[in-house]
């Protein structure tokens, strides 16, 4: 029986250290982490790896339920997949586990709260953008990639895969930047 931790943040500039430290302190023998949105399961390879790794009696541990996902259906599907493997899910804050009968009810309610919170975040973000546009100060999101560096590496003869490794992004992002040229 292993305690396996899963940590997630939504953006590349956010920090995973707090979650990883908490999972380590809770005795997780293996911790997988990723920096991707919890809005859907798409592209969350580390989560898929953790679920595939689980064996009967294992425990999947997350710091908060919204680290598993922000969509109630996704969270419940993840919990179902974990249980199909004979394992269970434990959320540290607030402490809830699917090992007990009330755990499922609590996690369903917490999942709905996480989904509602995600909707509120989107609504506040949209309102803020609309206000900024109305004031004429909206300039769009912060650019996460150095497009000039990518173009320079390409001009030096580097291929998209090599550029992606150096810059720390996907090849698709490199292709998008190069298409803008």
UniProtKB/TrEMBL annotation:
Alphabetical UniProt keywords: DNA integration, DNA recombination, DNA-binding
Superkingdom in the source lineage: Bacteria
UniProt-annotated catalytic positions: 10
Record family assignment: Belongs to the site-specific recombinase resolvase family.
Listed InterPro entries: Recombinase_CS, Resolv_N, Resolvase-like_N_sf, Resolvase_HTH_dom, SSR_resolvase
Gene name tied to this protein: tnpR_2
Keyword DNA-binding: yes
A Pfam family annotated for this UniProt entry: Resolvase
Annotated Gene3D superfamilies: Homeodomain-like, Resolvase, N-terminal catalytic domain
Keyword Zinc-finger belongs to the record: no
Record's protein name: Transposon Tn3 resolvase
Domain Resolvase/invertase-type recombinase catalytic residue range list: 2-136
């Amino acid at each position: 029986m292993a305690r396996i931790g899963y940590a997630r943040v939504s953006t590349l500039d956010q920090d995973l250290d707090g979650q990883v430290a908490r999972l380590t302190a809770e005795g997780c023998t293996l911790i997988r982490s990723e920096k991707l949105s919890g809005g859907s399961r798409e592209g969350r390879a580390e989560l898929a790896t953790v679920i595939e790794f689980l064996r009967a009696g294992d425990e999947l541990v997350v710091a908060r339920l919204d680290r598993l996902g922000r969509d109630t259906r996704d969270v419940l599907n993840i919990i179902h997949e974990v249980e199909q493997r004979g394992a269970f899910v434990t959320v540290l804050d607030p402490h809830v586990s699917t090992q007990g009968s009330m755990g499922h009810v609590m996690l369903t309610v917490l999942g709905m709260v996480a989904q509602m919170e995600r909707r509120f975040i989107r609504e506040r973000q949209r309102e803020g953008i609309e206000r900024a546009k109305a004031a004429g100060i909206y300039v769009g999101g912060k650019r996460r990639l150095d497009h000039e560096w990518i173009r320079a590496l390409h001009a030096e003869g580097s291929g998209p895969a090599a550029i992606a490794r150096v810059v720390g992004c996907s090849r698709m992002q490199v292709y998008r930047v190069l298409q803008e040229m």
